[in-house]
Write a structure and sequence with these properties.
With 203 residues, this protein is of the alpha/beta class. Helix content is 31%, strand content 31%. The protein contains six helices and nine strands. Helix 1 packs parallel to helix 4. It is globular.
Length: 203
């Protein structure tokens, strides 16, 4: 089963609250968005957004230019169904985050728990090249990954753990680190996953 087939199967067979990343209110992501103080007209992309609830909150806050990217079409379809008519206010892209070609550039790039699934150097480097290519100068990049105290696998797949230092080191060629924090995510199963979230500015 390749990567796309794996995620299509996950979203076709598991409901919202049967996956560990379920988060009705993405508080950490929303806090970084607020601190970044970007205008409501800013171009926002959520990488690996799938059927997460960040898009619901962005629409509620009045953001008008939102793109959701995910490798799984099933995940995006679930989000569209949940949003109903509001789904027409969002741009949807089915693509692999490490190799996608964007028709536009963005002011705010958000990624909660997609980057850490890239475990090969080529994929990691491709992703970083993609961020610098499609994020505007002075744009904001927010990435949340499993920390060194977090899980070593997710959804049956190996992941790559990061510390604040290793995350900053990965992106230092194109980005200045603004802030990194640790965050515990409580899963629907009552367990906790430790994340490191970092906010960067495009040089």
């Amino acid at each position: 089963m390749n990567k796309k087939e794996h995620w299509e199967n996950v979203f076709k067979t598991k409901s919202l609250n049967e996956v560990s990343w379920y988060e009705p209110v993405p508080e950490t992501s929303l806090a970084f968005l607020k601190e970044s103080n970007i205008p409501k007209t800013a171009k926002i992309i959520d990488i690996g957004g799938g059927d997460s609830f960040l898009v619901d909150h962005l629409l509620k806050l009045g953001y008008t230019d939102i793109t959701i990217l995910d490798i799984s079409e099933s995940a995006l379809n679930r989000a569209k169904q949940r949003l109903g008519k509001q789904a027409n206010m969002v741009k949807w892209i089915v693509a692999d985050a490490a190799i996608f070609l964007s028709p536009e550039t963005y002011d705010f790039w958000h990624d909660r728990a997609a980057f850490h699934f890239l475990t090969e150097e080529e994929s990691i480097n491709n992703y970083i090249e993609t961020t610098q290519k499609y994020l505007n100068k002075n744009g904001t990049l927010v990435i949340g990954t499993f920390s060194e105290n977090g899980p070593q696998k997710c959804s049956g797949l190996d992941i790559k753990q990061y510390s604040e230092g290793s995350m900053a080191n990965r992106f230092k060629a194109y980005f200045n680190r603004i802030k990194c924090i640790k965050s515990d995510h409580k899963t629907p199963f009552g367990t906790y996953q430790n994340f490191v979230f970092c906010c960067f500015k495009r040089k």
